[in-house]
Each structure stands twice: as structure tokens, then as C-alpha cells.
């Protein structure tokens, strides 16, 4: 009996998820269902990403630089064994790249006479990390396959590699992105969701990129690794709703622990793990913690408490089933990685990821 019920629940969930998840171009995930489908995209008005055909494909460097992924992985292994948090920092870099004029390595550019670096935006400043690791990967790739592997693809490869090395899923990764010749400080300030977002806000930011509520919940699962600064969750501890009260959805003992890391005044750059039970391991404890009121950011906890669409159910399902989470994370990463890539003769392959050629 019990297994019948389980089967039924699983099927319902599969129907729910497959109807709305996958609308990017390539069959992306080795062992996932619902691959070649395509399907809707959720009727979002003019999504930037999530197209049927992005122009990217996994074998893009098969002839021109077959060692590309091995080179990326060898640098990652060294960097992450030296500092496990680096995996989280690199995963986040790809996200902050893709949400600003697409996955085009704009996030890596330093200031230029004609544009300002995205590194100075509110979400990025004193926050983004890992640029030196990307530089090291780039210089190794330039030695082996000069002017071939784009910085945008390096970010995508590093995000996948970091996920794998932290214990998370592997997936087939479409490649062939080219690098932009400009950055957008504005775009960075406008398109990256703030940590105190409401659920409706979060969904709006994601829909603008052609991503849906399943992508929102699965990609938020990246917060199973890494750290956040006190300044990003202080509002929840002392004045969540302008009434000088803590966020009522924050579990009591966790609240007290957080106050010691993040005092009412000062301590803004003190850091706390996004997933306090296993901050270096890519697993589904992030969702389990949310289930018990221990999500660190408002944007984490509202996936459950916000009660919009299926997000609450998805948090529960991902907390119950790490395989399901891994599948969806992989699918949504491919979808995020397909946001408005530059292809063909547009853009360039930078020789140094920090500046245009
Ligand atoms: C849903 C909306 C999201 C919001 C509001 C958000 C916000 C944040 C914030 C505020 C931090 C801490 C930054 C700091 O203290 O300097 C952070 C860290 C992080 N974010 Fe997100 N994030 C979101 C989605 C994502 C996505 C989609 C990914 C990747 C797929 C991601 C990956 C990470 C990782 C891995 C870290 C830890 C970085 C480190 O330790 O260096 N986040 N995020
Ligand atoms: C950047 O933002 C400023 C102020 O919000 C605005 O005046 C300007 O047009 C924006 N530029 C771009 C390229 O979006
Ligand atoms: C989020 O934080 C910003 C900056 O501190 C603040 O201006 C804004 O009102 C906050 N939004 C919400 C919904 O609390």
C-alpha cells in the first residue's frame, strides 16, 4: 500500500515538474526524464533566456580543445582543496554572470574607459570571489589552446566542476558561449535579486530571465554551499517589517545563534554558512533546514513561507528526495547557462578574462 501511495505522489510530482521545467535547447541531463521535450516555457513575456535553441552544444571544443574540461577540473581541485568555500564562490559567479546581459563573462571585466565594472555593483561589491581562480584557468587554457575557450564557458565549466567536487550532480553542459565586449554596472544592480526579496519579487527576477518557479527553487538550492555576510541577513534579526521585530519565520534557537555572529550594530562583514549543517557539501540539507525555519536569507525562507504557486511543495519534495533535487538543479543550471549567450561571429574570445582584447 505504502509504495502505491509513494508511486502516486511521485507521478503527480513528475507531471507537475515536467510540464513546466524544461524549455532550453539541449537534451541536457543524462539520466533525467523529460529531456528532449521542450515544452512550454511558461508563457512568460519575451524571456531573455530559456529558448528552444541556444546555439550551444556539449561538443563545442571536442576538436579545438578536447582537454578544456580536464584543465578546468585540475585547477578547481587544487583551489577547492586549499579552500573548500571556493566551490561556492565559483558557482555564484556563473549566476551573477548569466543574470546580467546573459552568460557572456561580463561579470569578469574590470573598469574600462567606456564602461564600469559589474564588480562594483551592490550585489557584487565586497562579495563576489574567485576571480583569481578563473584567471588561473584562463592562463592554463591559453597555453594549451590559445584564443579558443571563452571566459563565459570557463564560468559555466567552473560552476559545474565546483558542484561536482562538492558532492553534487554532474550534467552534460552545452558550450560555445562567446565573451562580451562590455559590462553593465546598471544591469548588475537591477537584475540580481536582493536577499530580502519577497517570493513575488524573486519570481519576477527569474521570469525576466526566462526562468520559472521550479528553476527558482532548484537553483536556490545552490545555497547548500557557501557563506553569507551579516549585512545580507541583519534585517531579519532586528527589523524585518519596520517594527523592530525579528522575522517570525526564523526558528528561535537559530535566531539566537545568528545574533551572536551578527550584532545589531557593526559586524556587517562577519560571515555565516547558508547551510549550517554541511556548508561545504552539496546536498539537500538546505531544503531540510528551510523546513525547520533555518533558512539564512529571507529569500531562502520565503520559498516555503511565501506560499506562491508550487514553491512550498517543491521545497518539501526537495527536502525529502535529494535525487529529485539533483535532477532539477542540473536541468535548471543548463537553462540558466543558456540565457542569451553570444554566439557566431559576435563578441570575442578574450585572452584575459578581465579585459576586452
Ligand atoms: C534566488 C535568489 C538569490 C538570492 C537573493 C541570493 C543571494 C545571495 C546572497 C545575499 C549571498 C551572500 C553574499 C554575501 O554575503 O556577500 C549569496 C551567496 C551565494 N549564492 Fe546566492 N542568491 C540567489 C540565488 C542564487 C543562485 C541561483 C545561485 C547559483 C546557482 C546562488 C549561489 C550562491 C552561492 C554558492 C553563494 C555562496 C558564495 C560564497 O560563499 O562565496 N545563489 N546569495
Ligand atoms: C543606468 O541607470 C541610470 C540611472 O538609473 C540610467 O539613467 C541609465 O539610463 C541606465 N543605463 C543603462 C544602459 O541602462
Ligand atoms: C530590502 O533592503 C533594502 C536595502 O536595505 C531596503 O531599502 C528595502 O526596503 C528592503 N526591502 C524589504 C522588502 O524589506
From TrEMBL:
Keywords: Calcium, Disulfide bond, Glycoprotein, Heme, Hydrogen peroxide, Iron, Metal-binding, Oxidoreductase, Peroxidase, Secreted, Signal. Residues 1-25 form the signal peptide. GO terms for biological process: anther wall tapetum development; hydrogen peroxide catabolic process; response to oxidative stress. Ca(2+) 1 binds at residues 97, 100, 102, 104, 106, 118. GO terms for molecular function: heme binding; lactoperoxidase activity; metal ion binding; peroxidase activity. The active site is at 96 (proton acceptor). It catalyses: 2 a phenolic donor + H2O2 = 2 a phenolic radical donor + 2 H2O. Binds 1 heme b (iron(II)-protoporphyrin IX) group per subunit. Binds 2 calcium ions per subunit. The keyword Signal applies. Its EC number is 1.11.1.7. GO terms for cellular component: extracellular region; plant-type cell wall. Disulfide bonds join 65-145, 98-103, 151-353, 230-262. Its cofactor is heme b; Ca(2+). Belongs to the peroxidase family. Ascorbate peroxidase subfamily. Belongs to the peroxidase family. Classical plant (class III) peroxidase subfamily. This is Peroxidase.
Amino acid at each position: 500500500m505504502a509504495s502505491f501511495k509513494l508511486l502516486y505522489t511521485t507521478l503527480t510530482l513528475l507531471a507537475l515538474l515536467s510540464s513546466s521545467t524544461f524549455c532550453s535547447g539541449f537534451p541536457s541531463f543524462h539520466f533525467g526524464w523529460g529531456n528532449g521535450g521542450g515544452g512550454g516555457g511558461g508563457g512568460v513575456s519575451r524571456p531573455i533566456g530559456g529558448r528552444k535553441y541556444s546555439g550551444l552544444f556539449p561538443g563545442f571544443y571536442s576538436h579545438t580543445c578536447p582537454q578544456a574540461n580536464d584543465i578546468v577540473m585540475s585547477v578547481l581541485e587544487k583551489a577547492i582543496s586549499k579552500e573548500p568555500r571556493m566551490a561556492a564562490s565559483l558557482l555564484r559567479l556563473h549566476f551573477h554572470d548569466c543574470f546580467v546581459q546573459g552568460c557572456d563573462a561580463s561579470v569578469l571585466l574590470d573598469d574600462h574607459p567606456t564602461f564600469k565594472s559589474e564588480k562594483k555593483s551592490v550585489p557584487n561589491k565586497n562579495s563576489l570571489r574567485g576571480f583569481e581562480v578563473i584567471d588561473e584557468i584562463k592562463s592554463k587554457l591559453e597555453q594549451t589552446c590559445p584564443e579558443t575557450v571563452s571566459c563565459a564557458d570557463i564560468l559555466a565549466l567552473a560552476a559545474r566542476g565546483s558542484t561536482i567536487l562538492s558532492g553534487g550532480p554532474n550534467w552534460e553542459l552545452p558550450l560555445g558561449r562567446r565573451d562580451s565586449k562590455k559590462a553593465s554596472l546598471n544591469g548588475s544592480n537591477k537584475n540580481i535579486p536582493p536577499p530580502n526579496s519577497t517570493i513575488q519579487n524573486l519570481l519576477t527576477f527569474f521570469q525576466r530571465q526566462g526562468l520559472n518557479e521550479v528553476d527558482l527553487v532548484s537553483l536556490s538550492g545552490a545555497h547548500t554551499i557557501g557563506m553569507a555576510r551579516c549585512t545580507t541577513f541583519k534585517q531579519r534579526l532586528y527589523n524585518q517589517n519596520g517594527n523592530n521585530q525579528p522575522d517570525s519565520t526564523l526558528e528561535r534557537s537559530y535566531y539566537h545563534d545568528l545574533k551572536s555572529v551578527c550584532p545589531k550594530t557593526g559586524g556587517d562583514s562577519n560571515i555565516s554558512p547558508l547551510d549550517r549543517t554541511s556548508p561545504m557539501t552539496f546536498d539537500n540539507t538546505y531544503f531540510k533546514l528551510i523546513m525547520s525555519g533555518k533558512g539564512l536569507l529571507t529569500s531562502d525562507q520565503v520559498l516555503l513561507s511565501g506560499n506562491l504557486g508550487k514553491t512550498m511543495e517543491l521545497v518539501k519534495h526537495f527536502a525529502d528526495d535529494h535525487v529529485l533535487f539533483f535532477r532539477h538543479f542540473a536541468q535548471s543550471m543548463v537553462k540558466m547557462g543558456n540565457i542569451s549567450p553570444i554566439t557566431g561571429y559576435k563578441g570575442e574570445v578574450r585572452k584575459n578574462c578581465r579585459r576586452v582584447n
